[in-house]
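[Archive record]
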Amino acid sequence: MAIVDQLNTAVIVIDESLLIQWINPAGEDLLGISQARAAQQSFLKLIGDDDDMHDILHRVLNSSATYANEMRLPPTDVHPEERRVDCRVSAVDNADRNHALLIEMLDMTRRSRISRENALLIQHGTGRQMVRQLAHEIKNPLGGLRGAAQLLERQLDSDDLKEYTAVIISEADRLVALVDTLLGPGGPLNKQLLNLHQLIEYVLRLVEAELGDSIQVHRDYDPGLPDIELDRDQLVQALLNLMRNAIAALAGQGRLTLRTRAVMNFTIGDTRHPVVVSIEIEDDGPGIEPELQDSVFYPLVTSKPEGTGLGLPAAQELISRHGGLIEFESRPGRTVFQVHIPLQSVEPGSD
């Protein structure tokens, strides 16, 4: 079994009672259990009593056919996230002429995540280009609108009427600033060493009035996270956009979870980072509609009647300036947006 021990594929041998007889090191890592502890344990219990796998195992025992399928392993204490694996089950002969099954499992989670991450990066680049093309068409009429309001203001004698022109000017300036935010960096980041948890708590105070009395806030912070160099204003805006989306999804009732972690050896684009900081904003609302999930980071894509569809693209842009990336997972009852920022930030375009 020395060669099998070197494989990245998990190899597991179980008997006709579906109890584990042998497992290689990759299998120990995948299932989060040692060979000594796994021996004579139910294989099905270790993978969450998957009904489809139960049927496949008995089918192979009865027919000696080989089956291959894709399955998902539930979270465990060792692996807190669900994992996607390719699985192959075949019958084997042994010296005692007892029925036995050989199970090969290859973890596809990382490959799937990298593929999705690359899609998000492409989406972000396409969205940025769309905004650049729209910016000229938007900013020109806004400039004319603002100028006309200023000229009108000079002709008005009533302070009450001037309040209306002031609103026009203020809103035009706000929209120009929003377009500028989406256009990309207007200068170098104003980085300072910040405590991430203090920053999150500050953003939470900003949305306190929107939480109401029926939304519970759960904090799951990693106390070991070091301070990190960030542009405070940009991170506040990005987290504010994500947190407000989560609160809106809860529609006044539910649970908002704020989680931080340090993730080792994390790849963003073409760069592998020794450590990234992960900020998760999770809600237990209805989830993002499946038809929108592939396009939520494009500008003007929104499911909210009053939404602009600019909050998520803006947040992605702000995080990308720190060399980071926003990912998400969504299903009914659980939507989580994950902000990944390298502990040692890499500026976009740097080596």
